[in-house]
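Let us practice reading a record.
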Amino acid sequence: MADHSAPHPTPPESPTTDSTPDFLSTHFLGPRPRRQFSLFLFGATCVGLSILSTRRALVRRYVATVPHFYQQSNALPREPISLQKEAAEALQIATINVLSFATLMTGGTLWAFDVSGIGELRERIRKMKKQREVKGGTNMEQDKAVEREFEDFLGPSLRKGPRKGETRETEKPQ
């Protein structure tokens, strides 16, 4: 029989310590990345649900147009078609699709730029403005020259009236 009273060797301790978290837990599984990614996942869920509702509405509309087995193919449908109802439903579905896609894109953009909230976004914008002011800001004369050049380029199509300080050709200055 084997002797079970012999001590078992203990495994060597790993060189990593708990004070240095690994890359995966800090950059993908931590509370900040999860909060950033949650808006993206919410948008993706909304897009999926809006696709399902759109498909359901299209299938329901198609099934309503298909005649029953014993119905004549040239007979009018049983339910009258309400154009107002169709337009309202189309507007509702389009609005849901656009809002869900906008939520998805906003969440993805915030996640990509490492922004986790509105306060942080405001702070970053303030820092960018301060850096721009330190570098010299924008040249107001140069901005006005670019605006004038743009107006001259698109002048007739954009201008409804005379420029400031100008009179129309039909009017004579007094």
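A brief commentary: The two ends are 125 Å apart (CA to CA).
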